[in-house]
Amino acid sequence: MAYAPSSAHRAPGRLEQIATRVAFFVAGFGLSAWAPLVPFVKARTGIDEQTLGLLLLSLGMGSIVAMPVAGFLTARVGCRVVIIASAALLCISLPLLASLSDVRLLLLVLLVFGAGVGSIDVSVNIQAIIVERAGGRPMMSGFHGLFSLGGIVGASGMAALLAAGASPVDAAWVVVAAIVVMSGVAAAGLLPYGSQRTGPAFAVPRGIVLFIGVLCFIAFLAEGAVLDWSAVFLTSVRGMEASYAGLGYAAFATTMTLGRFAGDRIVGRWGGGTVVVVGGFCAAAGFAVTLLPHWVVALVGYGLVGVGCSNIVPVLFTSVGRQTSMSESVAVPAITTLGYAGILVGPAVIGIVAHAVDLPSAFLLLVILLVGVGIGGRLLRP
């Protein structure tokens, strides 16, 4: 269905494309800036790993609860209002997360921070669907590539500030200032409207949207498995020194980011369905390679997983924009929620399987699931 804005608004053009890229960068930047603060929170509060895990779970819960609300609001007040409000929640939360020592207050602030993360994720993807559709060419991979780049810059920038001697609070305020500036730059190109087809605030995904959501769940599950289990696998199974174990995720994140920046050209040439087919099989092969002896081979495997996963989710979001069974204001929160569920629940499932059998067997389960993604890609609209 061709996009046609209301008579009160011009069609999205280059300004809106640039603003979408900046907004995706802000989303990744703001989320990742939290990661280097986690050890400081743990030390400041004196909590154990179990309590820290519950705190981190509240971030995910805040995101999941806020996602359908963000979709509902985007359809009614526009992408610009929801994106700016979401960025404001990140700005309010980060200095508090860097300074509070009361666990109950931290729990509440993490819920708010998670709500900001989930809301900006939904609203920027709705804007991206509208802008890509109006542009008539693939752009979604590049948008998501800016999210990945923002994540790298946010985490490394915050870590560099802390390593240079800045206090967590001062470092957080630097991040806030950067978010404010970037949001101000993007504001003019953020859409003052959302999906032209509205729907209820909450709806159970069905049909093609449910199918796309399941594929998203598996793709995010694979990403969460690399994030939470690659270092454990490299040290406990492959005998790698702990100080180098982060190379597994680094290999994955690097190839994923590069793959996304090349993704629009690849999707334009081969089609989204083919990209999901090849990506699913490539990611499955990557996890299979990690099961071969020696940690060097495992690093190659994680790099293959990054290549394979890099453009699956962007293509799935584009597919949601093409389906007509549900409005984007409902469909985008639905598949985003399923994706976040993959990140939250997936690593725990991997841990259960690893405890019951072993970690290589858990990775073999991922191989099977990703082969399913590859097969499922054949059913997506070109």
What level of helicity do the residues show? over 70%
According to CATH, the homologous superfamily of the largest domain is MFS general substrate transporter like domains
Q: Strand percentage, roughly? A: under 5%
Which consecutive residue ranges, at least 5 long each, have pLDDT under 50? none
Per CATH, the architecture of the largest domain is Up-down Bundle
Mean pLDDT: 88
Number of domains: 2
From the N-terminal CA to the C-terminal CA, the straight-line distance is: 14 Å
Count of strand segments = 0
Specify the biggest β-sheet. none
Q: The CATH topology of the largest domain is what?
A: Growth Hormone, Chain: A
Count of DSSP H/I helices: 14
Order of helices and strands: HHHHHHHHHHHHHH
Report on the architecture of this protein.
The structure is a single chain. The protein is mostly helical and 382 residues long. The chain is 78% helix and 0% strand. Helix 3 (49-77) packs antiparallel against helix 4 and helix 10 (272-290) runs antiparallel to helix 12. The longest helix is centred in the first third of the chain and has 33 residues, at 103-135. The chain starts with 13 loop residues before the first helix and ends in a 6-residue tail after the last helix. The mean pLDDT is 88.
